[in-house]
Amino acid sequence: KSDITSLDKTITSIATVTGRSSGELWGQIGSYSALAKEYGSSLTGVYEVADLFYHQGLSTNEVLEMSAQALTLAKIGAIDYSNATDYLTNAVRSYHIDMSNASHVTDVYASLAANAATSVEELASAMSKTASAAASVGSDFEFTSAAMAVMIETTRESAVNIGTAYKSVAARYGNFKSNPATLVTDEDGTTTSVNDVDKALKSIGISILDSTGQLRDFSDVIMELGSQWDTLNTNTQRWIVTAL
Fold first, then answer.
1. Could you say which DSSP state residue 182 is in?
2. For residues 235 and 244, what is the distance between their CA atoms, to the nearest angstrom?
3. How open is the CA angle 107-112-113, to the nearest 5 degrees?
4. HSE on the CB side for 76, CA within 13 Å?
5. Which residue spans within the chain are E strands per DSSP?
6. By C-alpha distance, which of 158, 157, 133, 155 is closest to 144?
7. pLDDT tens string for the chain (244 positions)?
8. Residues with Cβ within 8 Å of residue 61, at least 6 apart in sequence
């Protein structure tokens, strides 16, 4: 009885948001039952996930697609439904990933977790802290996810700390991107300009500016730097790291 009461409450919430009748929503129970069976979830759990997505203003088709991927993320990452929904929404919205391709998010997390000393939940949590800032400076989803995996594996810092650190670096780069003439001052009082960063990287043949004078995508610059990193002496490494 309590399950039916909880289910009816969730369906009523969806009806209120969508303007559809409870009867119509009860009539779709077959689609939700299929999801529950496929992902080993309770029927109420599936409706609760759908309710969260309906509250985002999504269409029924979008809700079913996103719900399936949120349930997948919850299952492979041992994440609760609410957090899985938030993590998936964050990645899809920040990187403008088509909802019909939302499975790409879970695929990337699962692949990285299988090949690095990290977990799906750590990756999703770290990404939730940095996705918006990273996307704004051209650090694409795959690159940023891989960066999170390497940083977590190497440092064993918490996922939240890693995501916040990457967000800070991306935000600093983003300040240059919005106005290359801006002087950026960190919390410790260090002031850096785009010229300082460009000068440091140009010392090893990398420019952060494209042919039109605009900042290049962050991931492209870091990939170029990474390809040379082990050939640089300690002083050069420190100079570049300090500038960045």
1. P
2. 14
3. 100
4. 21
5. 183-185, 191-193
6. 133
7. 557 788 878 888 888 888 787 888 788 888 888 888 888 888 888 888 888 998 898 888 898 899 999 999 999 999 998 899 999 999 999 999 998 899 999 999 999 999 999 999 999 999 999 999 999 999 999 999 999 999 999 999 999 999 999 998 888 787 765 555 555 565 555 555 666 777 888 889 998 888 887 888 999 999 999 999 999 999 999 988 887 7
8. none
Q: Is the CB of residue 170 less than 8 Å from the CB of residue 218?
A: yes
Collapsing DSSP to helix, strand or coil, 160 comes out as helix
Structure tokens at 31: 């689609």
- What is the residue type of 13? S
Is residue 168 within 8 A of residue 174, CB to CB? The reply is no
Separation between Cα atoms, residue 225 and residue 207, nearest integer Å: 10
Query: Which DSSP symbol is given to 230?
Result: G
Task: Tell me the C-alpha distance between 19 and 100, whole Å.
Answer: 24
| Phi and psi, residue 56, nearest 5° | -90, 0
